[in-house]
Amino acid sequence: MKSLVVNEKFNNKKLSAFLLNSFPKLSINSIYKALRKKDIKINGVRVNSDVNIHTDDNIDVYITDEILFPTFNIDIVFEDDNILIVNKCAGIEVTGQQSLTSEIHLRYFNLPFKPMPCHRLDRNTSGLILFAKSQKALDILLDKFKSHEIEKHYIALVYGNSPKKYDRLQAYLFKDNKKSFVYISDEFKTGYKKIITCYSIIEKRDDGSCLLDVQIETGRTHQIRAHLAHIGLPIIGDGKYGINDINKKFSAKTQMLCSYKLKFNFKTDSGILNYLNGKEFSIDCNF
After folding, report:
1. Which of 4, 67, 114, 233 could be a cystine partner for 59, CB 3.0 to 4.6 Å?
2. 75-79 and 83-88 beta bridge pairing
3. Helix, strand, coil: what percent of the chain each, to 5?
4. pLDDT tens digits, residue range 191-216?
5. Which long-range contacts (CB under 8 A, 24 or more apart) does 135-138 make?
6. Which domains does the chain have, with CATH numbers?
7. Which residue from 42, 47, 43 is spatially nearest to 32, judged by alpha carbons?
8. Which residue, among 86, 72, 84, has the nearest Cα to 127 in the 3D structure?
9. pLDDT of 158-170, one tens digit each?
10. Exposed, middle or buried by CB within 10 Å (0-12, 13-18, 19+), for 117?
11. Is 256 helix (H, G, I), strand (E, B) or coil?
12. How far apart are CA 193 and CA 214, in angstroms?
C-alpha cells in the first residue's frame, strides 16, 4: 500500500490525473481496474469512480509494486553518440505507455534529446530496434529506411515446406482497424495496399517446420505473419494468423518471428552516420 497527500496543483482535479503524475509508469487501465475493485481509498473511504480530489486529501493505493513500478531489462546490442540498437523481447510494445521507448526515455532522462525509434515491431515480435539519439540522426535514418538503404532481416520458424529456396511474393493487404486484423488478396481490391515479402530458406527440419530469412520491401501491419500464412507457411506460435493445433504441437506460446539483423547499405551521403555504411548488427534467435 502506498499513501499519498494531494498537493495544491491537483486541487479539484481527477484522481486519475494525480495517480498518473505520482506513478509515471502506471497505466490508466490499471487505475480503472483498481477502482472497479475498490483498491483505492480517499480519506479512508474506498472509491470506485474517477472522482475529483482536493488539497490535503489522503490517498491510499492498494496496487502492487509490479504494476506501479514495472521494469524490464533493456538488452543493448550497440550504442554510440548517435544510435542505440536494442534487442526487444516479445510481449513489449515499441511505443506507448509501459513500452520499450518509454523505458528508454526514463533511463536517458538527462539527455536533451530522448532516443527515438526509427521503425516498429509487433508487440509479440522480438528483435532489433534502432533508436536515434539526436534529431539529426533520426532524420537521416528515417530517410534511409524509406529509401531501403537499411536492410532489416527477420528469421521466422514456419510450418510447411516451400518448393522454392527463394521467393519474392507480391500481394495486397487490407487492415481492419476495428478487429486489429489484416487480410491478404492476390488481386487488387478497393482499400487494399500492395505488399512485397521476400524469403529464403535457411533450414528444413524433420518435424515439418522450416526456418526462413525474411525481408519486406513494404512495411505494412502484420505483413510477414499474414503473408506467409496466406501462402501456406504460417509462423509457429502465431495466435492470430497461425494454426492452433500446430502451435500446440510445438508448445509455442509466442510467435517464432524475430528481427535478427540490421545492415547499413547507404547509397548516398549519410552525413554524421557515414561511418555506419557497410556495418551489420545481428543476434541469435535460437528457434
Report:
1. 4
2. antiparallel
3. 20, 35, 45
4. 999 999 999 999 999 999 999 999 99
5. 136/271, 136/272, 137/82, 137/83, 137/272, 137/273
6. 2-68 (3.10.290.10), 154-259 (3.30.2350.10)
7. 47
8. 86
9. 999 888 999 999 9
10. buried
11. coil
12. 19
Alpha-carbon radius of gyration of the chain: 23
Instruction: Give residue-wise pLDDT tens across range 20-43.
Output: 999 877 889 899 999 999 999 999
Q: What average pLDDT does the chain have?
A: 94
Query: Which strand (E) or helix (H) includes residue 98?
Result: none
Q: What is the pLDDT of residue 76?
A: 96
Q: Which of 151, 117, 158, 116 is closest to 261 using CA atoms?
A: 151
Return the bridge partners of 173, or none. 184, 193
Of the candidates 47, 41, 46, the residue with the CA atom closest to the CA atom of residue 59: 41
The pTM for the full model equals: 0.77
Inter-axis angle of helices 28-36 and 15-22, nearest 10: 120
The residues annotated with a catalytic role in the active site are 122
Beta bridge partners, 60, equal 3, 41
Is there a contact between 184 and 132 (Cβ–Cβ < 8 Å)? no
Q: Which bin fits 28, alpha (ψ -120 to 50), beta or left (φ > 0)?
A: alpha
Cell of 244: 492452433
Distance from C-alpha of 36 to C-alpha of 34, rounded to nearest angstrom: 5
**Number of neighbouring beta carbons within 10 Å of residue 158:** 30
Give the integer Cα–Cα distance in Å for 61 and 42. 9
Element housing 135 (H / E) = helix 135-146
Q: Which of 83, 168, 91 is closest to 127 using CA atoms?
A: 91
- Coil, helix or strand for 145? helix
